[in-house]
What does this fold into?
Amino acid sequence: MFKSILKNRKSLAKQFSKVQLEDIQDEALRVKFKKLNGKQGGFTLLELLVVVAILAAIAGTAAIALQDTDARASAAAHVAMMDELNKGIRTFRVLNKNTYPDRFDSLLGADVTGGTSPFAAAATYPVDELVAIDDIGTLALNATTVSALNDIGIENLQYLDYTAAADLDDDGVTTDCESANVVATIESRANAVVSNNIFMTPNANGCGAEVALADTDLVAVWTGGYERVYGGDGAAFDVAGSPTVASAGAAITAGAADTPVLMAVGLGPSSNLFNANELGGMTTVPSYRHVSESQYGRFIALFEIGTFTGTGAAYSAIDQVNLVAIVDGAGDTKEEELGEWDGTRNTI
It folds into this structure.
């Protein structure tokens, strides 16, 4: 029945469209025809304005609902990456008989010659330019800590080699890894060096060198606060009475007693954590994208390596080095990234 009515309606509409005004003799019918014919011609201006206003209101509502969507999606991805890296390192340790991965990125540099690391005050890595994370200082290892690191499998770190200069392609382009020029090398389009791979060797388009850890070698240490990492009350690293850090990468000169020493290392592609041939090796090296092209864009692992004694920068080595947390390239913890994801913390 409905099909029949619809068919008749279409037929009548088709016949009506063929009628010409001149064919209608009755004046009253002519007037009605003009009105009906005008309605068949389309929307009035008022009707179009109403439709546009409705669409604008819908678009505005959608824009409010979707604000910061990209940043929140990135925060969710970062949280997932932190979890995967945390699980990956711990799984590697279990599968390799209580041995952590090796060859993490040190976040520092030195005048490396033949695998040794003579660190001078002027040879510290220019972290303000090349490392996104601000919450790090530098501290010298002691022999006991080196032994504890070796016992757990961390025997080498990748340092920026300020003496590295090697032909990187068929065009004869050479890197310039001196501390004053390394940023320009990264930003140059004449070579294949990028900040995320800067700690790899020149043969892999980087400026790095593998260094066997030794007494007095410098390492990066987290200064971003105890509670942010451990999730409980405790002395902060970055307030009065804690390690004195004038700026990112500055040497720590004092530490509050019983404050943990957390070594910060980058999770870059040089580490055997990302060697698929290793037992427990991961297949992907996550990147942190919210940095400039000249900043280091990898995630950071924090290992507890000792405890400050309260006398200057002196500290005691821990019995066994432990992985404490993973933070992103900006120094945000997992909880802080979750805050960006659910909107309780300002997004990037």
About this structure: Residues 69-95 form the longest helix (27 residues).
